[in-house]
Amino acid sequence: MSKEIVEVGGGGLAKPRIKVLSDEEILEIHWRSLSILSKVGVKVDHKEALELLKSIGSEVNLNSRVAKIPEYIVKEALDKTPNIVRLYYRDGKRFIELYGDNTYFDVGSAAYYYMDYKTNEIRRPVSRDLAEVAKVADFLPNTHIMSTALVPSDVPEIIADRWGECIL
Predict the structure, then answer these.
(1) Cα distance between residue 1 and residue 73, in whole Å
(2) Domain chopping of the chain, boundaries
(3) Distance between CA atoms of 44 and 16, rounded to whole angstroms?
(4) Predicted TM-score (pTM) above 0.70
């Protein structure tokens, strides 16, 4: 099976960039987030995840479901994170690579309301709507990623996101 990588902005075109934060501000946010994770902690609503965090050295309160994650655990996790992540298209052949300054466009994510293109009615989306949006996205040349653009209201909310992934 051949794999086709989707290139964006080829031909030596300059990529527009918006830089909102300075390198120093980004570093400050990073250090403060490490401090918050280790001193305040983060709420984790998953017992097995809490047990795993505890087993690798985090301070865990099972009653409050808060894990205080030491800096060395975060650093180790970041060191193990791949520099390039591939996201495959629904056909399993084409993919995009997330790294560096690559820019991709997504249809959108998690809309609870949808304007029906046939009636102009604004309503809660259903599974059929998400399937139609996915078909349109397949033909848009400048759309590279299709996430669960709509949250289907015709299934229980607790599974709506996963259901949307199945539709895609």
Answers:
(1) 38
(2) 23-80, 83-167
(3) 37
(4) no
